[in-house]
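Q: what does this look like with S-adenosylmethionine bound?
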Amino acid sequence: MKNNDLDKQNEYYSKRASEYEQIYFRDNKERRQEIDDEVIRLKELATDKSIIELACGTGYWTTRVSETASDIIASDFSQEMIVEAKKKSYRCPIQFLQADLHNPPFEASSCDLLLLGFWLSHEPCQDYPTLFNTLKKLIKQNGKIWMIDNNPPAEGSKFESVGKDSFGNNYKKRFLDDETEYSILKNYFTDESLRKILEPYFEIELLIHKRYYWSVVLTAK
Ligand SMILES: C[S@@+](CC[C@H](N)C(=O)[O-])C[C@H]1O[C@@H](n2cnc3c(N)ncnc32)[C@H](O)[C@@H]1O
């Protein structure tokens, strides 16, 4: 992604921090159920684990895993997101820090479980190899990586595509509540395309691909 696009994307998330969690509470039972089911699976996965979360946003997943985890370091590039996340309460020791997920300030083999929610769809596809190798380094031997992201039906009709770049990355229009418009890199994945992207780097322990969301649990290859 060009620096200018990256700056715009970061600006979008920082400005959206206070309204971001609306995505979790739209009035749609099936969609809500998929998230609730994922919370149950993730809390189980996180039990007694030492966790690093990248791009934690407002801490939606963070607060839930804190009910079972041993400890958490939650990071995000946006200070505004971290401010929102800090407003929540947490049930295990937690530390927040501002960090770029592409250059995380953690030692190798730092956690049992790495969380990366709603990010892969924003990562430029040409950068997957670098990102995946970065993620693999952070987990201990036998450590796991969890990711979740959305499928097109979770987007709503308002977010029309504004085309693709030369790498094949898709761009979509996004609006803040005040109607300010942004163009955001947003790729979508089928079960098959996810496997193809992930399998060179990871063992796929679990891949759930539902109508609104997909999630994976990975170990390093
Ligand atoms: C779609 S939100 C996901 C938030 C959270 N993980 C969740 O599942 O609710 C994407 C998040 O990535 C953060 N972000 C964007 N670029 C980043 C970067 N280079 N490093 C770390 N976080 C970044 C944004 O600030 C935002 O909080």
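The domain at 3-152+191-220 is CATH 3.40.50.150 (Rossmann fold). Helices lie at 3-16, 29-45, 60-65, 79-86, 128-138, 191-198.
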